[in-house]
Amino acid sequence: MTTGVTDFLNNLTAEWETIKQQVTKYFDDESRIREDGAVEIFKRPWIAPQNFGIILFPPVDKSFFIKFKEDTKISIPTFYQDILLKMNGCFVFDFELFGLPKSVYTTGLLDRTTTQQLDLGSANKFWKNSYKLNKNLFYIGARAYSFDENIGYFIDEETIYSIRTNGEVIATWTTFDSFLVAEIKLAEKMMLEEKEEQQKTPPSIKI
């Protein structure tokens, strides 16, 4: 494993252990750390030529919390601020934690030249409206629930909720590490099933 990736993982606390394990498990010759500090692991050419199964973004700039509140009129819960100060969003297969993209909170525009974390501001201003739930819950992420439906992750002061768009609560957690263990296990299982199915499909023949 490269020094840059190792240093990134060493900055993570024990509650991130399940993500560290996934990085170690899927690290390959094409895994890398980008110039912006993001870690890209596990090339998945069966999805797209430049797709990585795991992308972890470096800690957020604290000043972005102020900009977020100015733009959304919402405060990021302290619990999630602490998460962002360790990792500013991630993709682990079809599991996602939202973050504050640097380009959005410095220039007002999303840098589309490389994969960025999904924006926490857009999630809490717009995307959460597709869920039937208590609007005081704070939207922090999502995961593929099936091959045609996603579930959202929401938090209040004490609990993390996994919720379908119809408002059904699938699961709850009171610690961040137990949440990661449960959901990343399911995301990995779905990824492996999808990979197996893709590899069974014969390539199309062009005439």
**Helicity range:** 25-40%
- What is the count of β-strands? 9
Strand order of the largest sheet: 1-2-3-4-5-6-7-8-9
Helix and strand run: HHEEEHHEEHHEEEEH
N-to-C CA distance: 43 Å
Low-pLDDT stretches:
none
Give the C-alpha Rg. 17 Å
Mean pLDDT: 93
What is the element layout, followed by pairings?
Blueprint: H1 3-10, H2 17-26, E1 32-33, E2 39-43, E3 52-56, H3 63-72, H4 78-84, E4 90-92, E5 95-97, H5 102-107, H6 120-125, E6 138-146, E7 149-155, E8 160-163, E9 169-173, H7 176-200
Antiparallel strand pairs: 1-2, 2-3, 3-4, 4-5, 5-6, 6-7, 7-8, 8-9
Characterise this structure.
The model has no long low-confidence stretch (mean pLDDT 93). Strands 1-2-3-4-5-6-7-8-9 form a 9-stranded antiparallel β-sheet. By secondary structure, it is an alpha+beta fold. The protein is globular.
Question: Which key phrases capture this entry?
Answer:
207 residues; alpha+beta; 7 helices
Question: How would you sum up this structure in a few lines?
Answer:
By secondary structure, the protein is an alpha+beta fold.
